Amino acid sequence: MKRTRLLALPIALTLGLMVAACDNNQAPPPAAQAPTATTDPAATAAPAATADANKAAAEQKAAEEKAAADKAAADKVAADKAAADKAAADKAAADKVAADKAAADKAAAAKAAEAKKAADAAAAAKVAEAAAAAKAAEEKKAAEVAAAAKAAKEKKAADAAAAAKAAEEKKAAEVAAAAKAAEEKKAAEVAAAAKAAEEKKAAEVAAAAKAAEEKKAAAAKAAQEKKVADAAAAAKAAEEKKVADAAAAAKATEEKKVADAAAAAKAAAAKQATELSAAAAKGKADAEAAVAAAGTAPAATPTTATSPTAAATSTAAAKPAVATPAAPTATTGLLPVSGLKPDTRMASNAKTDQIGYLGVWAPSAAACATVDQTGATGYTVITKISLRQGSDLVLVDATPETAGKATLTKGDKSFAIVQSGPDAITIDGTPLVRCVAK
User: Which segment, 270-279, 317-326, 372-381, is predicted with the most confidence on average?
Assistant: First the structure.
């Protein structure tokens, strides 16, 4: 009966909530309508259903709480049982550990007693062994003393016998050695004499052969040296002849050039002098005519200016005729006939049609005779590829001059060359004259 009632409570509670919801969804009654006096049965039943639902919910909650309490009590009982079981198991394990420890202690004590017994036996054996060793050592010492005495006696007898035998053997060996040495000495002397004679004979033969070979080689060397010397002499003679011919040709060409230049200068001077004489004669005649004309003309006032023609004529007549001197010809010097270096010979034979300052130069004609001689200074040798001042050689390419000037530069060295004539130049302001070969 009670269970049926409990089941009906949720249903009634649900119905009550639904009814309440429906009532809440209805439109509110008009505000001006007055309440009726008649009682609605549905309105009366709603509070009762709500109260029943609340009671049913409370009872449901109480039943649930009781079920939870019953479950907690059952869980506690189970936990207490598990804890009691664990405590019993832990005690059994502890009892086992204690029993195992007691057994182990008993076994250890038995083992220690056994070990002590064995150690005592070993100590006793060691004491016995030490006594036996001491006895053996004493016996060994006595035996060694006896053996030493016996050995000393036997050694003394053996030494005496050995000494006697050694003396005998030594004497016999000395006799045999002396005889053998005499025999070997005699044989060695004979062999040495034979070897010396053989070596002397071989040395004489070798010396004779060597002397013949050296004589032959000396003759061949002398012939070769003579051949080389002849060839060198011929080459030197040909070179010197070539240089001499070139120098002679260059000198002849230079002398002809100088003579031609002098003749041309002389002809020009003569022509100029003739022209100046003719001009002077004409100027004199013009002046005389002007003077004559002035004598017949009226006298001029002091402030009257002289006519330009008359002034020019007067000036020309008054100016003396002066001949223009010819340009002086530079003096050349002669190079020494020996001791010239290759670049000196090359420079003295160089062509000057494109680069006029190629050649050998010295401060004076007399200084040309000191070029390439011991202690000489101040001269300069210029080829197409080099410039040498005394012993200071600079490899530099010569370039054609512009307006008679050229500057040769190599590294930090520079040479300013000014050529004033075929045989006269200045290098860095120092005047030099040309040196030619004899």
Answer: 372-381
Instruction: Report the 10 Å Cβ neighbour count for 16.
Output: 21
Three-state secondary-structure class, residue 20 = helix
Long-range contacts of 425-433 (CB under 8 A, 24+ apart): 425/357, 425/361, 427/361, 427/380, 430/363, 431/363, 432/361, 432/362, 432/363, 432/379, 432/380, 433/330, 433/331, 433/332, 433/333, 433/361, 433/362, 433/363, 433/364, 433/365, 433/368
CB atoms within 10 A of CB 368: 24
Distinct helix (H) and strand (E) counts, the chain: 4, 9
Top-confidence residue, 296 or 162: 162
Q: What mean pLDDT do residues 90-117 have? A: 89
Residue 395 has a pLDDT of 96
Residues 416, 409: Cα–Cα separation, whole Å:
9
- Tokens (6 digits) for 331: 């003096």
**The residue to which tokens 């009966």 are assigned:** 1
| Strand, coil or helix: 409 | strand
CA angle 195, 199, 201 (to 5 degrees): 120
Angle in degrees, CA 150, 154, 156, rounded to 5: 120
Residue 19: partners with Cβ closer than 8 Å, 6 or more residues away: 46, 49
Tell me the per-residue pLDDT of 304-342, one tens digit each, with 9 for 90 and over: 333 333 333 333 333 333 333 333 345 899 999 999 999
Asked whether 413 and 404 are in contact (CB, 8 A), the reply is no
pTM listed for this prediction: 0.29
The angle formed by the CA atoms of residues 334, 340 and 341, to the nearest 5 degrees, is: 135
Integer Cα distance of 2 and 253 in angstroms: 169
Where in the chain are the domains? 330-438
> Region 406-429: what's the mean pLDDT?
96
How far, in Å, CA of 92 to CA of 100, rounded?
A: 12
Question: How far is Cα 155 from Cα 186, in angstroms, rounded to an integer?
Answer: 44
Q: Note the pLDDT of residue 163.
A: 87
* Mean pLDDT value of segment 23-43: 53
Q: Is 411 exposed, middle or buried (CB count within 10 Å of its CB: 0-12, 13-18, 19+)?
A: exposed
With tokens 């230049």, the residue in question is 261
Asked whether the beta carbons of 348 and 385 are under 8 A apart, the reply is no
Residues 348-359 have a mean pLDDT of 95
360 CB neighbour count, 10 Å cutoff: 29
pLDDT at 236: 53
Closest CA to 434 of 380, 353, 372: 380
